[in-house]
Specification:
By secondary structure, the protein is an alpha+beta fold. 24% of the residues lie in helices and 39% in strands. It is built from 3 helices and 10 strands. The protein has helices at 14-27, 53-64, 96-111, and strands spanning 3-11, 34-35, 42-52, 71-75, 77-81, 86-90, 124-129, 144-148, 150-159, 162-172. The strands form 3 sheets. The chain has a 4-stranded antiparallel sheet, with helices on one face. Strands 2-7-6-5 form a 4-stranded antiparallel sheet, with helices on one face. Strands 4-8 form a two-stranded antiparallel ribbon. The relative contact order is 0.27. Residues 10-88 form the Phosphoesterase HXTX domain. It holds the Pfam family LigT_PEase. It is an enzyme of class 3 (hydrolase).
Length: 176
Amino acid sequence: MTTQRLFFALELPAPLQQQLVQWRADNFAAEAGTPVAAANLHLTLAFLGEVNRETQESLQQLAARITQPAFTLDLDDAGHWPRPGVVWLGCRRAPRGLLQLASLLRAQAARHGCAQSAQPFHPHVTLLRHATQRIVLPPRGFHWQMEATRFALCSSLFSRGRTRYKTVARWPLTSA
């Protein structure tokens, strides 16, 4: 039985992806870590892992039933997790809609056998990987607002030494 490595995410609009890539280049040295490709910048809502077709279809049907209001996300925080070597961009105060959506998707995933981290949900966009040295974070005062009007199911494909994310399906968030 074939499987795919899947996750639910908020996709970042292409202009925002490019702004974040430029900000990252302006604020982090080239040797700070491995930059995540612009097209791969996203905010994971629920990681599913290796999923078979039947489970994927069930989760897609459940996702299609979600009636969650759209929300505004303010990316105004950054950090470094030394152990996994990740430099991230996130929000100081996550909007309730984001937390509710992630909680719902993580619960559905767990009910379908997709193990979920025991760690609390920490919404973030990974900017750099393999950032194991001491990282100097830029001073606060930055922020990017994003209207979250939909969420997606994405697959992670590794080929020719590169990871590429592909959107499998998308669902709208409702208007307020």
